[in-house]
């Protein structure tokens, strides 16, 4: 993927293949004007990822954050799907994700890291699951529900999918299922005047060069 990006972007952009939890060890502290963190929070330790962004930003630099919240697609594991989802252990798996509980929680996480909120949006995107295949695409293929550390859920999902396949004819009338994807979209700024911690000296970055971690 990085080689494709390198082909498209050319030599003006430096690409670094690294764990985002450790991003600040690859770049000088307080060196970046903008950090993008789009749909990554749920894959790791949210607090640590935001802290890395804070360290990399120069005072006055901005963080563009977009993340799904744990409210997303709750229609698929509540109500008529609740028992089935409980059996699958969906809630346990979701609890292992580190994306924010909701938009307010997202703003709080940023404020805890000493960011100022410049603009924010609690975006709710209606999504229609037309069939079990659509649900599988979200829950299994994309890895969202089986993203946690709980390995047993993978086995349960595989077993459940076999059962669902058999019951498909009976379940089909349940569709379409209308659900909502809740996304927290925030532009946050590292303050210029105050500092939560001793900031290292500012190292100016070459404006002609951008870095993607
Ligand atoms: C849902 S995709 C979002 C991709 C892109 N940011 C976007 O908005 O389209 C999540 C990405 O996070 C990457 N990722 C997951 N854990 C990571 C980590 N610890 N460090 C760096 N990248 C990670 C995955 O490889 C994947 O490309």
Features:
single chain; Rossmann fold; 4-stranded mixed beta sheet; two-stranded parallel ribbon; elongated; binds S-adenosylmethionine
What is the CATH topology descriptor? Rossmann fold
Major β-sheet annotation = 4 strands, mixed
State the helical fraction.
25-40%
Ligands in the model, by name, code or SMILES, are: S-adenosylmethionine
- How many alpha or pi helices? 7
How many domains? 1
Q: Strand order across the biggest sheet? A: 2-3-5-4
Give the distance, in angstroms, between the N- and C-terminal Cα atoms: 13 Å
CATH superfamily placement: Vaccinia Virus protein VP39
Secondary structure class reads: alpha/beta
Fraction of residues in β-strands: 15-25%
The strand count comes to 6
Looking at the overall shape, the CATH architecture is 3-Layer(aba) Sandwich
Shape: elongated
Compute the gyration radius: what is it?
Answer: 20 Å
**N to C succession of SSEs:** HEEHEHHHEHHEE
Give unreliable regions as ranges.
Answer: 198-211
Average pLDDT = 82
| CATH class term | Alpha Beta
Structure write-up:
This protein has 213 residues and is an alpha/beta fold. Helix content is 34%, strand content 24%. The protein has 7 helices and 6 strands. Strands 2-3-5-4 form a 4-stranded mixed sheet. A two-stranded parallel sheet has the order 1-6. Helix 2 links the parallel strand 2 and strand 3. It starts with a helix and ends with a strand. The site of S-adenosylmethionine has 8 residues, from loops.
């Amino acid at each position: 993927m990085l080689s494709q990006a390198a082909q498209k972007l050319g030599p003006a952009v430096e690409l670094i293949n690294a764990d985002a939890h450790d991003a600040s060890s690859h770049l000088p502290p307080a060196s970046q004007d903008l950090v993008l963190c789009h749909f990554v929070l749920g894959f790791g330790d949210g607090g640590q990822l935001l802290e890395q962004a804070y360290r990399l930003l120069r005072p006055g630099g901005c963080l563009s954050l977009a993340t799904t919240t744990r409210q997303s697609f709750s229609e698929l594991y509540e109500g008529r799907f609740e028992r089935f989802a409980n059996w699958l252990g969906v809630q346990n798996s979701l609890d292992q994700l580190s994306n924010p509980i909701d938009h307010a929680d997202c703003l709080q996480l940023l404020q805890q890291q000493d960011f100022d909120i410049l603009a924010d949006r609690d975006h709710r995107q209606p999504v229609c699951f037309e069939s079990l295949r659509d649900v599988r695409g979200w829950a299994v293929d994309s890895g969202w529900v089986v993203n946690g550390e709980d390995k047993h859920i993978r086995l349960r999902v595989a077993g459940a999918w076999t059962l669902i396949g058999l019951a498909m004819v009976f379940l089909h009338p349940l569709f379409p299922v209308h659900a909502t994807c809740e996304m927290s979209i925030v532009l946050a700024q590292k303050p210029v005047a105050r500092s939560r911690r001793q900031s290292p000296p500012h190292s100016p970055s070459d404006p002609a060069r951008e870095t993607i971690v």
